[in-house]
Amino acid sequence: MTDDDIRGFLETMASETDLSSVAPALVIRRARRRLARTIALGALAITLAVIGGVAGVRSLTAAPAPVVHPGPTVSSSTPRLPHNGLIAVANGNGIVTFDPVTGTLHTLVRCPGVCRDYSQSGQTSSPTCPGVCTYIRSLAWSPDGTKIAYFQSYGVNDMLIVRDVRTGVSRRLTCGIQNHYACGLGEGAPLSWSPDGSRLAFGMHAAVYTIDVSGKHLTRLVTGYRPQWSPDGSRILFEQIVGAANIIYAMDAKGSHRTLLAEGNRPTWSPDGQRVLFDAGRAIYVVNVNGSHRTLLAAEGYAPAWSPDGTRMAFANYIGAGASRQVPKTLQFWVANSDGSSPTVIFQESGCCFGDLGGPTWSPDGTRLAVVLIGDSSRNIPLFQEARYRLMLMDADGTHVKVLGTSYPFRPAWRATL
Question: For the whole model, what pTM was predicted?
Answer without folding.
Answer: 0.72
